[in-house]
Amino acid sequence: MAGRNLFLGTQGMTIRDVEDDILKGGRFLAFHWCVSIILLSYSRQNSPRYFKSWQSPASEAWGNSLMTMMLGWWSPHGVIYSILCFWRNACGGTDVTSEIMMQLVGPARTESILKEAIKRPLDLSQKILIGFVILVPLMVISLLVNALTSH
Predict the structure, then answer these.
(1) CB-based contact 10:29 (threshold 8 Å)
(2) 19: CB partners within 8 A, 6+ apart
(3) Phi-psi region for residue 89, left (φ > 0), alpha (ψ -120 to 50) or beta?
(4) Residues with Cβ < 8 Å from 121, sequence gap 6 or more?
(5) Is there a contact between 29 and 60 (Cβ–Cβ < 8 Å)?
(6) Cβ neighbours of residue 26 under 8 Å, at least 6 residues apart?
(7) Which residues lie across from 40 on neighbouring strands?
(8) In terms of Cα–Cα distance, which of 4, 86, 9 is closest to 53?
(9) What is the Cα–Cα distance from 29 to 7, expressed in whole angstroms?
(10) Taking the domains of the chain in order of start, what are their residue ranges?
């Protein structure tokens, strides 16, 4: 893999380096975004990127979530897609490590590596995003209920 730049985040790494780092919590992750234009909504995920065991994926999660916050709500389906994007990003994105490693080293080796690998913990920034995803809809509902019951 070194020198071939197959995946963003693996520059200068060999397949063995990636395997060793996956054991420590490194993962291939994809983050989600949504854009709405009038009645059309597009919900997609970015190309997978490798996050080393010591790297935080929070900036990727926040970046996609902020884009979704500005551009995703503008259609009926966009509201639903946006909430799903926020939740997926807050929970660490979509882990595609298994699928990518199967292509690189085969199913048996992938299973062996992932069986020994530690689970990647969420960092503080991702926990804050989860709180945001939960609290904002609750605040909106609270404001709506308050406005409807005050008349």
Answers:
(1) no
(2) 101, 105, 109, 113
(3) alpha
(4) 25
(5) yes
(6) 18, 50, 51, 52, 53, 55, 120
(7) 37
(8) 9
(9) 11
(10) 15-149
* Secondary element (H or E) of residue 42: strand 40-45
Q: Which amino acid is it at 5?
A: N
Take residue 123 and report the two structure tokens written for it.
């960092």
Longest Cα–Cα distance of the chain, Å, equals: 67
β-partners of residue 51 are 27
Q: How far apart are CA 125 and CA 129, in angstroms?
A: 6
Q: Whole-model pTM? A: 0.83
Q: For 78-124, what is each residue's pLDDT tens digit? A: 889 998 999 899 889 999 999 999 999 999 999 999 999 998 888 88
Kindly state the average pLDDT of the residues 23-41.
Answer: 94
- Tokens 């994926």 belong to residue: 57
